[in-house]
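Hi F.,

I've been meaning to write this up properly since the lab meeting, where we talked about keeping a consistent format for the predictions we share between groups. The idea is simple: the sequence comes first, exactly as it goes in, then the structure tokens exactly as they come out, then a line or two of notes. No screenshots and no reformatting. I'm using this chain as the first example so we have something concrete to point to.
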Amino acid sequence: MSLLRDNFSMSSNSNTSAFDLVKFVACILVVCIHTNPLPNYFQPLYRIAVPMFYMISSFLFFNRVGSMAQGEQGHYVLKYIQRSLILYLFYLIVLFPTSYVFFYRSWWNIGFPDNVLRFTEQFILDLRNNNRT
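Output, unedited:
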């Protein structure tokens, strides 16, 4: 493992510049996933963007954790998990219901505020019913 760490240390700016370039290309590919500007046979090329982000993020995360002292590693990992959970909970509470209303319901026929209220009410009632059983 130390051989791997020595070969891929992030001490030079050229490595981080290379990662920045790859992340930039991956951002463009993510836009292509959602807009599909070229024929469908280019879809597999676009789909490498998400795994690329995971690999780069994992490498940078474990490289940073590996370079820390033993006592600092646990604190950093807990802080990272806490930050990720806050973002995920924000998505679940705010963005998911809004996305659901906009994209999966015909909100324009009934009206946006009415649909948000109906969805929130139904969501809460479903949670209550699931907890009772």
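Notes:
The CA atoms of residues 105 and 115 lie 8 Å apart.
The radius of gyration is 21 Å.

If this format works for you, I'll send the rest the same way.

G.
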